[in-house]
Amino acid sequence: MIRKAVKPTVAALILLFALFCLIFGLLGGGFDDVLNKARMICFECIGLG
Amino acid sequence: MNDKSSKENKRRRFPKPSARRYVQLIAAVLYNCNFAGFIKGKIFRGATKGVCVPGLNCYSCPGATAACPLGSLQSGLLSWRTKLPFYIIGTLLLFGLFLGRFICGFLCPFGLLQELLHKLPTPKIKKNRLTRALSRLKYLILAVFVIMIPVVKLTPGFCKYICPAGTLEGGVPLVIKNEALRGMLGGLFSWKVFLLAAVLLLCVFCYRAFCRFICPLGAIYSFFNPISFFGIKVDKSKCTGCGACVRGCKLDVKRVCDGECVQCGDCKKRCPANAISYGFKPPFGEK
Fold first, then answer.
1. Predicted TM-score (pTM) of this structure
2. Interface confidence (ipTM) of the complex
3. Which of A21, B64, B119, B187 could form a disulfide with B90 if both were Cys (CB 3.0 to 4.6 A apart)?
4. Are residues B240 and B183 in the same domain?
C-alpha cells in the first residue's frame, strides 16, 4: 500500500526537479554550451585527445 | 513439399524484422542523417547539435545531427566550479522518467549494432552468476569515469578512455577521411580501437555485453525503469507467476522491467498468459 503511494510521489518529484533543471539550464545558456561543444570535433571522444 | 520446407527453413534462418528493429533503424538514421559528413570527413555544425538524443550516439560522428547526452554531461561537469550542467541533467531526467531503458531497447544505435552482431551463428554465453555480477560494473563506470574523473581530473573520462561508440562512429570515419587527424594518432587511439574490437567481439558471443556491463547511460536510465511513464508492463491480474518471462530473458533480470531490463519485448512473446504489454503505466500504483 505504501509502495503504491510512494512510486507516483517519487515520479512527480523527479518530474518537477527535471523541469526545474531544464528551464534553469536553458536560461543559463546550457543549450549554447552543448551546441558549442558538439559543433567541434571532440578529440577525447575519437581517441586523439 | 521440398519447396515448402526450404521456404520454412529460410524463414527460420532469416526471420522477418520486428517492429522494434525498424524503430531502432529509424532512430539510428535520424541521429546520423548528415550523410555528406561521412563523405567530406567533417562534422555537422547546425543548431540541432544543441539538443541531446536519448541514446548513446557520439557527437563527433560525421553524420551526427544532435548531441550525445553522456558526452554533454561529462563536458558540462568539466566546468562544475563555475556552472553546473542543469540543462543536461534535466534532459537526462526527463528521458529517464518518460521512457527508462525503453531507450536502450528501441532508440540506441549502439544497442542495435550489438543485437545484429549477436545474430552471427556462434556459440553463445548464457546469463550466469558471472554476468550477473558484471552487470554491476556499469554503475562503477558511471561513478568513476562519468562523474569523478571529469570533476576531479577535468577530463571526460568515459569518452576519453572507454567509449567504443565514439571510436566507431567518430574516430574511425574521421581518421579515414581526414589526413590531418591521421598524423595525430597515438597510444590512446590504439587503446580505444583495441577496446572497440574487444567489445564488438564480446557482443558476438554475449547478448548486449556493452549495455549490460559497461554502458553508464544504461546505468542512469536503469534507476528510472521501475517508475518510467511508458514501457513494458505486467498485468498482475493475468500473470500466473510461471516465470517464463525471466527464465527466457537473455539479460540479467530478476523481474520484468527491473533495472537490467532493456524492454526488448522478448518476454512479451514468451508469456503464456499474455500478461505483458507495452503502454503507458498507470500513474498511481500498479495495475
1. 0.92
2. 0.92
3. A21
4. no
